[in-house]
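Bench notes, afternoon.
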Amino acid sequence: MFIDTHMHEMTYSKDSFLKLDEIVHIAKEKGLGAVCITDHDSMEFKEKAEVYTKKTGFPVFVGIEYYSLQGDIVAFGIEDYPRERISAQEFIDLVKAQGGVCFAAHPFRNNNRGLEENLRMVKGLDGLEVLNGSTSPEACRKAAQYAKELGLFTMGSSDCHVPEKVGVCATWFPEEIRTIDGFLAAFKKGEMRPAYYAKGSYHIFEE
């Protein structure tokens, strides 16, 4: 199944223009089986997502896009997260201590919010976002090269803030995932692949 693993909903991501209903509507049209809301430095949407999933049956998983001192990291499977900026390594260590997973978001985007060369310094990252719907192809290709060199899982996601970006990139998982526990278990296996949407369907990205 295909899951968009990095999306922003307007309630807690103030730079987003998307409400959850719109995200899910577009996601279903494109063939996504689940979505992940990863708001900036916040997991406050978690309760709303759980209610929505129970009501509609469509899986909405909540993580966080945390802006560390070195750049953005997306994490899932945690309850506690810092309300102030700390180093990337400290955040990764916090995620791991809680049994969570994390990947570097748009590591080479030219806005000073990617980990860039710090990828070589930190320990414990699970993966890299090698397809990001709001990042240049050149930056994505460089991320794919680093993922291969460092032996990290590869992810695809839209990083959407507006309707036209929903689901433009996603991550393929080989199994059906309906719960956050299932998502975390599948993530830790590392069998997922980045994908992009074109001509009405998703295509696995050949790295």
